[in-house]
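Shipment paperwork, digital attachment
Item: protein structure file
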Amino acid sequence: MEYVVLAVLLIGFGSLYFKKEALTEDNSEEDKEKISELEQSHSAKDEIIKNLQNTTDVLNAKLSSFDQTKTEKTQIAERLKLIEVERNNLKNENTKLNKEEENRNETLRTSIESTNTLQDSLKTEIARVNDERVKETEEKFEKMKLTWGKHEKEVENHLRKICNNHVIDYISQEDFPHAGNKPDNSIEIMDQLIIFDAKSPANDDLSNFPRYIKLQTENLKKYAKHDNVKKDLFLVIPSNTLSVINQFTYNIGDYNVYIITKDALEPIILSLMKIKEYEFADKLSPEERDNVCRVIGKFAHTTKRRIQIDQFFAEEFLDILQKAKKLPDNILENVIQFENAEKLNPPMEKRKKQILTKDLKEKSDQIKKEIEIREIPEIQAKITFKEKDAGEQK
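Attachment content:
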């Protein structure tokens, strides 16, 4: 644009110059004035041109600055696009992370709820098992107390049965010949009264039962003081109390007391009956007396050991049965079905039919032969029992 202006000015100056030459001669004065005006106009136009040139320089500078600004704007726009892309990526990543976090929180909440449910179920199961154990313990003690309540009558009935089977005189409490306190049961062998006094715990606390038995051994002096009462007296206790008894024989001085169970009554009475084979007890030689004592002691020891072993295996079998309840349900159902289908038929006991030792020995020999034929290895028993106190008499 500035070039166009310069061209117009030059053309104007040229036309003025030629016109001035033509009119110089005719109008010199007038021309001078016009020339003066034109010079002034020229000066003014030069000033204008100069100003326009300055303006042009300023505009060019501004145009250069604008181009630079435009370039910067383009660069900034590019960076802005990159930032926008990065922002979108970050936004998408943030959304993804928020979603993952929400999923983790949901999984965590589900796990916590499952854990709480499992914990509640476990607490309920523990409470149920504890209730069952408490109930089983209570039922066990109730059965024990029921057994103890019937103990005296059962001992009496058992003694009567033994006396009937072996033709022995049974002396009831009412028929005891001496005044004062009378024993629960007694029998008469060779004009001597043998005392069998039944004793049982007063409650389910067995911790004081051994002390109670010891006191009762001292109270038997009221029976032992009579001449026709044998100086060997017996206290008959329930078999399920043997575990708390540590001493089974008491030597009081003038008499001896033996702690036995109902199962030991018949072997002991049969041992005492051996004395009847002699016409008079004072005719027994020392060796024969030792033999009688040895047989009685052997019966007593064997009976106690048998009861002790049976109790040990009873506890082991009960423990196995408790563990069997923890089997998987499908296996436990099959076990119960097989259990219901099984039936044991032990030999029946018949009245007036004697169990012969010869038959028992033949059966034992037969079993041993079958073991040898089948090459069954001998089982070495490694049963350990609760150690007795150092002062216990066997």
